[in-house]
Every structure is written in structure tokens, then in C-alpha cells.
Amino acid sequence: MSWRWGAPPHLAPEDPVETQLDKLEAILAPARIAGTAPLFASLLSIPTGERYPPLALSAAQQRRLTLAALLDQLEALARQKPILMLFEDAHWADATSLEVLDLTPSLRSGDEQAPLEHRFGQFLDEERHPIGLGDDLRRHLGRQRPAGDMLGQGLDLGGRQAVERYAGDVREPGPGRLVFRPEGDQHQYRQGADALDRLHGPLPPFAIPATLQDSLAARLDRLAPVKEVAQIGAAIGREFSYPLLRAVAGREEPALRAALVQLEEAELLFCSGAPPDARYTFKHALVQDTAYETLLRSRRQILHRQIADALRGEFVAVAAAEPELVAHHLTQAGLDEPAIEWWGKAGDQALRRSAFKEAAAHLGKAIELADKLAATAPSAASGNNRLHLQTSLGNALIWAKGHHAPETRAAFARARELASRAEDASQRFSAYFGLWVGHLTRGEPAPMQDVAELLLREAAARPNCPEAVIAHRISGQTRFYFGDFAGAHYHYQRTDELYDPERHGDFANRFGNDPRALAEIYDAISLWVLGRVDEALPLTDRALTDAVPAAHAPTPTMGYALFYAALLGLLRDNSEAVATHGQALADIVSRYDLPASWAGFAAFFQAWANSPDSAGESRLAGMRRGIALDREQGWFTSCPVSRRPWPKPKRAPARLMLGSGAWTTRSLSWSTLSNAGTKRKCTATAPRSC
Amino acid sequence: MHRNRAAILLKRDPANIAAAEQSLQAAIAIAQSQNARSFELRAALSLAKLYSAANRDTDAYAVLTPAVEGFPPTQQFPELAEAQALLLALSP
User: Fold this and answer.
1) Does residue A650 form part of some domain?
2) Closest by Cβ to A531, choosing from B30, B33, B71
3) Which residue in the set A484, A533, A656 is minimally distant from B74, CB to CB?
4) ipTM value
5) Which domain holds residue A640?
6) For residue A508, what pLDDT is reported?
């Protein structure tokens, strides 16, 4: 969906970033710029640099705020002057656009200063166009009316004059006036017209061509010399820019411009701006369809390939902003391998923008192509990338459908199956680790345990396996969450014994955190809980020392080490330790530019440690501030707590398990971890409240 | 969790020992099942104090003894010294 407010300055990707941001601010409601500009800049992929503070929002939060800001913007503008919002072809729209459309009517309620009037146009049949405006219509018309009747009365809402104008549009498909009702609607329209007849007396008779495509194809044929230009445009899309058309058409500029003028005069195309900056839009998607249908399949493939090449070569900014465009053309060109890559990019980008339904759709296409490719040419399909796609899809589905939706579970089950088939052991470890982190962040103890045991078995089967430290580290943490502190201590100790700085120095990058420093700090807590206090405390200091080499951003090892050191102080009721580690945590938040949630934890610890003898308001208020800050960041979301005990309980089965996934974080990008050798950070291991 | 619940229950109604006692016993049982000796000692100490205040020294002694026995010696866990002192005072 594209938004155009009034006559906004055109945002051009080739403009310097600062100019783009100026233009963006110019069209935003002035009072709200500080809040909304960073959101829109992120939506439009304009880097904001130092201009605004980083958003530091969870994906879901950012999406919610962006949608709210869009509606806010609409409302603010509607207060200034009447707004005409054209939302064409909603049945072709993407999921997020439909959500905006769904939310828009809510603006009307209770605010007479910004009245919005909806024109229903062709969204009368909710079966086929399930769009929220139907609710609005139902309020006027009551339920369960036949479509034709609804159309008649719906049109009546606009008054007789509007009805006649509308009928005129449909009646006269002459030059410059396109019929834009699909065939199936003709019957409804006639019914609607009959209903109108009953209300207002007969309307003049009218005729609609037998099929619309026939009529459009005939008109295109009459424009034979310029037909090819329309076809190229149609291959590019409903909307295309002059520079891209020129790059693909490879014609003399004067001839190309003349052809475009002709298409514009025939009102098959709309034009905004003037070449070379012009953008063209097919007046209706059916015109584009018709022009496209008249292309031979082989010619289509060539055109799509040329478009994809042009996008990747000359229009890098467009390709980066809308990788799904490139992916679409590569797919249509039959270039499966690069198409998979670009659908994957589009999916990752949509994930970053919290457009989860789109992300799931893009990734689904990548996976479909990858599976097709694997069936025909197994060697060409890269197993590792396939796994990355699968985990990203699972991640998108969590938000699009829910944690426990069958689709989500199926996606992760498939990811696990793929992981088990990775031939390279190091890839397999990365994949299992990514899965484990996913279960951890989603608070799913039982699958955590399954994956941890699988990793241990894999490591045991390979002599001198470097990843054994990881297997023990996550086994320790899994047992910790099950309240099996002795088992946790055993695995942490093994991690420590096996760790060799020479062999495992890069593990902090590969697995998001330094395994030894994390094992030590968790072990300190485990030992303290076990009553081995004098062993626990020195281990805290060792963990903090060992975290130093891995403390560089964006590795949050030091953050975790300090967080758990402070937490241990809290368990010990030792305000001095909490104050020291809380302060150190606050210091590194700003130094390493860690996400705001860390500042929230630091604030909580510092407030707790402050004047511990008083239960005064200031102390409580400070702790609440810290919690509020973290809640804003999407922390403390309840998840179902597993009551499944560790398989061999020593005495009575544990009924309450320490930190067994009661809290989870929403901001995660763990799917990136499944990519072996990835340098991207792990933001996943969530400190738990014990 | 159960130990804190007991503390809150006692604050609300100091006379109602039974509810707090039940929570503390639950805390001890869970701590034992997890080998969580620090948590066990804290819960047992709270329960022993509760019994002691209610003139149930025998019960207090019985609940505190297993929690203190074999607890690794340390200067960094103030509750241990307190529990040892109480145990000494209670010893028959």
C-alpha cells in the first residue's frame, strides 16, 4: 500500500538520507514528529543515524505503534481539511494494508471533528472481499440482505446524484472510462440497479461488454505500436518508474516517451511526475492483467529476468527496500535459486518490520521453491539456508498465528527434521542450538530438554567434539530451569573443564554468548542454592573476569554475567552486591548501547539495593520504574508453565520449578542463529526471574 | 515463593499459624526435592521460629536439625549462624 498525503514531496531513494527525513517530517503532523518520524523512517527503510534515538522496541510493539501512528496521521490531517483516501483493489492488498483499512473506521467513533465517510464501492460482498467496512455497512442495512439489495441501498446512501454518476461510470466504457466491475459482479449490479429502480424510478438501460478482458485487449490492440511498452510495464507491475522501464525496454528515449504519452492519453496509465522521474500506474489492475496476458510465456520470462537484473544492478536501493519485488521477478523468470535467496531476504526484512503475515508469505514462497528445487536438483539446494528459512518461518508464524498454532508447531517440527539431516556436524550444532534458544525464549521447557539431550548425544558420539562445551552449557541451563540444581552444576562444571580459549574463543560470536562465562555465573547460582555458598561466591568473580574478552558489543555476555551476579546478590539478600553489580550493569548499558530492557533491570537492582532497611515509597517506586521499563520492552509476558518434572526426581516430584519458563521475552531474533558461522548476535537468552 | 507467602500470611494475621505453617512445610518439601539447601534452611529457620514462638520447641528442633546438619560451613550465609544458634538454644 502506498500513502500519499495531500501533495507530499516525493521521497526519492537516491536523495541523501537527511533530505529523505526532511521530506518525511514535512508531511507528518508537527506535534507528533518526535514520536512518529522514527517509526515511519523504519517502515520506509530510511536510516535515521543520530537524528532520532534508536527505537529499541520489540517487533510486535513497533508494528502496533506504526499502525497507530498511521491512523493518528490520518486523523490529524482530517482535522485540518477533508481527506479523500483512495483504497483501490483491496482484494489484491497485502495483509497489513487490510489491517489498516480494518482499523480506519474506528477513527470515526466519538470524534465528530474528523468525520470519515466510507464509500463502499465494490466491497459489498463480504464472502469474496472480507473487509472490515462490511461492519459499517451492516449498521446501516441490517444483516442478511441479498447482495444486490445491499448494493442498491448502499448506493442510495450516497444520494441519487452519486448513484447516477456511479451508474454512468459503469454504463459507458468509452475512451477514458473503464469498466471496473468484474464479470461476476454484473449480476449483482443489475440486482442493485433493480433495487434502485424500485426506489427512484428506472435508470437508463446500460450495457456491459461480454467480457472485460476482450474489451481491454481490443483497445490495447488498437494501440499496437505502443502495446509492447504497456506489456513491459505490466511485467514490472501495477506501478512502475520511468527509469526502470527505460532500463528494461532498451529503446530510444523519444520513442519510449511518446509511447507513454499515448498510453496516458488513452487513459490506460496514470502518470505522476515527469520523466525521468515519472511513475506510472495502470488505471486498473485488469488493464495490467490484460497487457500481461497478451505476452507469450517465453517473452514474459525474458522480461522478468531483465527486470530482476536491472533491479539488482542499477536499482540497488529499490531492491534493498523491496526485496520481494526482485524475488517476484526472479520467480517469474524461472530462476529458482536466486529467487529463493531473495524471498528469504524479503522474509527477513518483513520480520524486522514486524510484518509477520507478509514475512510468513515470503518465507513460504522461498520454502516452496527450495523444496521444488531439492526434489529436482538436490545438490543445488543448500541445506543450511533451507534451515534458516524454516526457522525464520516458524518465528514469523509465532506472531502471525500464535505459539501453539498447528502451523507454528509444524514449522518447528520441520526445522528440527532439517537440522537432523545437516551433513556438517558444526551446522547441525548451530541448528540445534538455534532451536533450543527458540524454546527457551518461548518458555517451552519440555522441548528445551529434548534438544539439550539430543545435543549431548551428538557431542558424545564425536571424539573431542569442540561443541561439547555448548551441549553441556545448555544442558546445565535446561536442568537449572527444571530446578535440578545438582544436575545443572554437573553440566556447568563440565563446560568449564572442556573450555579451551584457543578452541572456543569464537564461540561467543557463533553462539551469541561466551559459554564459559555464562556457565560460571549460572553455576554460581546453582551452587549457592545447593548450599555450597563458599564455592559459589568466588565463581561469580571468575565469571565476571571471563566475560571481559567477550564483552564487546554486540555480545551481551557481560550483561548476562552482571545481571546474574546482581540476581545472586538479591537471593543472598546482600544489598552491597546488588548495588555493585546493578551499577556496573547500568554503566555498560550506555557504554555498549544495549537495548533499553537492560537499563530497566539495572534500575530495578539499584532501587532494590537503595536504603534496604526502609520499605519507603522511593525504593518501591524505583523498582516499579525498572519493571515498567522492561514491560514496555515486551518482557514479562506470561507463558504456560510446564509441570513436567525432570525424568528421575530424587524424592517427591517437584511441584514448583524455579524459573521454569514463567517469563519470556518477545524481542528475539534467534532464527538467525541457525545459520552456521553467523556473526549476528544472539538476543535470545532471557534472564529469568527466579 | 511458599516461604514468602508464609511471611505475608503471618503479617496479615499473626494469630493464624496454621496457614503459614502449611506454606513453610511446602517450601521445605520442594527445597528438599531440589536439593536446594539454602532455600531449605531459610524455610526451616522461619518455621522453627514460628514453632518456638508458639512454645513448640520440640517441633522447632525437629524441623531445624536436618536443615542445619551437613550444611557446608560458610561465613557468607548469615541464616546459617542464626539457625545454629537457635538449634543450640533449643537443644534438649
Assistant:
1) yes
2) B71
3) A533
4) 0.93
5) 474-671
6) 74
